[in-house]
Write a structure and sequence with these properties.
199 residues; 69% helix; 0% strand; mainly alpha
């Protein structure tokens, strides 16, 4: 059953890449450009227009799987302040990711912002405010757990790489997205393939 946790990052990456190719002209019509404006209504804009429901469902499923990952980490790691706080923040980040399913408002529009567009923007902010601190705190929790100690430095390094690219935007956003998805997949892989902790 734990193996379902491996699906989250792979699903998000596959759907996002596929829809970006399929909806390339649609995205360009929104003002997106893969190099000059890669974060302009992307990936959120993939939930608009044709096949948008696929991206909407991907936000929900990937977010719920991230929350499940946080829940499993809480059970797997040695009880402590860092493991409780880090796993809780990861669970909250998953819920924020799922809430991105609330459809965004196109940036280039003459209409007023909608409630679901505001919720989408708020969810994106909450995702950043929970995921990055969660990773940093989980790095501490991993360091205190012999079976996870090797992931401590990797987790901190990923956060150190991802955090600046999150704010730099531009093409650096691809680095942020790849780093976070890879970290999530490797943590899930480690969790799935580790023996159960002895009681």
């Amino acid at each position: 059953m734990k193996r379902i946790l491996l699906l989250g990052p792979v699903l998000f990456a596959t759907v996002t890449a596929t829809l970006t190719i399929v909806k390339y002209d649609f995205l360009r019509g929104l003002g997106w450009h893969p190099i000059n404006a890669p974060t302009f209504d992307w990936p959120s804009g993939l939930a608009l227009g044709p096949y948008g429901i696929i991206m909407t469902l991907t936000f929900i499923v990937s977010g719920l799987l991230m929350s499940m990952l946080g829940l499993r980490l809480r059970a797997d790691l040695k009880p402590g302040a860092a493991s409780r706080a880090g796993s809780a923040l990861l669970m909250f980040a998953g819920l924020a990711l799922a809430a991105l399913s609330s459809t965004t408002d196109p940036t280039l529009t003459t209409t007023h912002a909608t409630w679901h567009g505001r919720l989408h923007d708020l969810s994106f902010v909450l995702l950043g405010l929970s995921l990055m601190p969660g990773m940093l705190i989980l790095g501490v929790a991993f360091r205190e757990e012999p079976r996870w100690r090797g992931f401590s430095t990797y987790t901190w390094s990923t956060a150190a790489l991802a955090l600046p690219t999150f704010f730099l935007k531009g093409a650096f956003f691809y680095v942020f997205l790849f780093a976070v998805l890879l970290w999530t997949e490797l943590v899930a892989w480690k969790l799935v393939n580790s023996p159960e902790p002895s009681s």
